[in-house]
Design brief:
Blueprint (H helix, E strand, L loop, with lengths): L4 H9 L7 H10 L9 H6 L8 E2 L11 H8 L12 H11 L6 E4 L1 H13 L5 E6 L4 H8 L3 E6 L10 H11 L3 E5 L11 H10 L5 E5 L21 E6 H4 L8 E4 L2 H8 L9 H11 L2 H24 L11 E5 L3 H12 L1 E2 L1 E2 L8 E5 L3 H13 L1 H7 L1
Helix pairs in contact: 4-12, 5-12, 6-7, 8-9, 13-15
Bound molecules: pyridoxal-5'-phosphate (PLP).
Length: about 375
């Protein structure tokens, strides 16, 4: 039989129709993580334009990008390669945070860094513990590196708080290569204190690495200073400038870790992965910390408004330390669809987190939140949930 690319690829990588373990492996790798944010194909199929949809499904600074960042981008020369080592950006971050540049690695969004860490620290057959429900990219990165994610699930009856005694025991018994904790956690908004995080790092016993994803840290009112944790040697902190400064389209994040960890992860990064626009925007953004503070205050006011408005509607909206709220609504997928098609409002259906009765709302301005509340009040899906 003449071999086509398809049959050659099937012989080499295994056919998707083949029986046996390879099938499961392929299917696992094909299940891409689900994210918030507008879906261009879905909007097109509904005849909607992104500009007419109010997006509550992504959770970034509700102020968007600072004016100074927009101005810097307008005068950016596009013809030179970016600095592969992001030196200026790392130096600026270093002096802003009081950390040596060799302890900082910039990435094409913190998502890139999650995948680089997995490739650098996981081998096929390894296990990685993930505090769940949480951001889907950790499990995807572990699977792509050939490792098996072990999920440590929190339960709604325990207000989504993890049983840390159980977690420590599991980690010290399993000795995973990586542990992922999102703090504050997406989508539950649970924020662990310093002692709790140190307890998790200690339970690794020096054998593995704790990845503490602080993508939403800037929106926490009472946050603790976590960067001292990198002196433990087995802790990596992940930060997202995408979210802090509303520059999701540019993609920019960084990690903070011991010098050896940074060097090992950096080896897996391809050249020029952080583009010139992201580096330029990051450099300007660092000089505007008040933009993040203003975003946090705005989030606080909107969260207060939403919590009491939703409470009056009988919707359960537990406290969240982050810039999003998790709300039990009944049939979340149906509600999401109704809000999008009838009211042009997009929320995150949490089925992919294993929470098909919840939606997540990325907090926007009070004015936008009013529109969301009106849409929720008018929706038939919510009415049916209460009947
Ligand atoms: C917990 C968490 N970490 C990281 C990211 C990725 O952010 P970035 O835009 O920096 O890649 C997200 C995005 O939704 C997230 O929810």
């Amino acid at each position: 039989m003449k071999q086509t690319w398809g049959t050659r690829a099937a012989a080499r990588f295994g056919s998707p129709l083949a029986k046996g373990p390879m099938q499961a492996h392929l299917e696992e790798n094909h299940s891409a993580p689900v994210h918030g944010g507008l879906n261009a194909r879905e909007l097109e199929s509904l005849g909607l334009h992104p500009e007419e949809v109010l997006d509550f499904s992504a959770s970034i600074n509700p102020l968007g990008a600072p004016r100074e960042v927009r101005e810097a981008l307008r005068s950016l020369p596009p013809d030179a390669y970016p600095d592969r080592s992001c030196l200026k950006l790392r130096r600026a971050l270093g002096s802003h945070l009081g950390i040596e540049p060799h302890s900082i690695l910039a990435g094409n969004g913190s998502t890139e860094l999650i995948h680089l860490i997995a490739r650098a620290f996981l081998s096929p057959g390894d296990s990685a513990v993930i505090f769940a429900p949480t951001f889907g990219e950790y499990a995807a990165a572990c699977r792509l590196a050939g490792a098996s994610p072990v999920f440590l699930q929190s339960r709604e009856e325990a207000e989504f708080r993890w049983d840390l005694a159980h977690a420590s025991k599991l980690i010290s018994g399993l000795r995973p290569s990586l542990v992922f904790v999102c703090n504050p956690n997406n989508p539950t908004g649970i924020y662990l204190g310093e002692d709790e995080v140190r307890q998790i790092a200690d339970s690794l016993g020096g054998g593995g690495l704790l990845v503490l994803d602080e993508a939403y840290r800037s929106f926490v009112d009472k946050r603790w200073r976590s960067q001292g944790l990198i002196r433990m040697g087995n802790v990596v902190l992940l930060r997202s400038m995408t979210k802090d400064y509303g520059i999701a389209g540019l993609r920019l994040g960084y990690l903070l870790a011991a010098e050896g960890v940074v060097a090992r992860v950096g080896k897996f990064q391809y050249s020029w992965s952080v583009n010139a626009a992201a580096q330029a925007a990051g450099l300007v953004a660092i000089d505007h910390p008040r933009h993040v503070e203003r975003g946090r205050r705005l989030v606080g006011a909107s969260k207060d408004f939403l919590t009491s408005a939703l409470g009056r509607m009988g919707l359960d909206c537990p406290p969240s330390a982050a810039n999003f709220l998790l709300i039990r609504v009944g049939e979340a997928a149906r509600l999401r669809r109704e809000l999008l098609t009838r009211f042009r409002v997009c929320v995150r259906d949490c089925a992919s987190f294993g929470l098909p009765e919840h939606i997540r709302i990325g907090v926007r301005s009070v004015e936008d939140s009013r529109r969301l509340v009106l849409a929720l009040k008018a929706s038939t899906a919510i009415r049916n949930h209460h009947e």
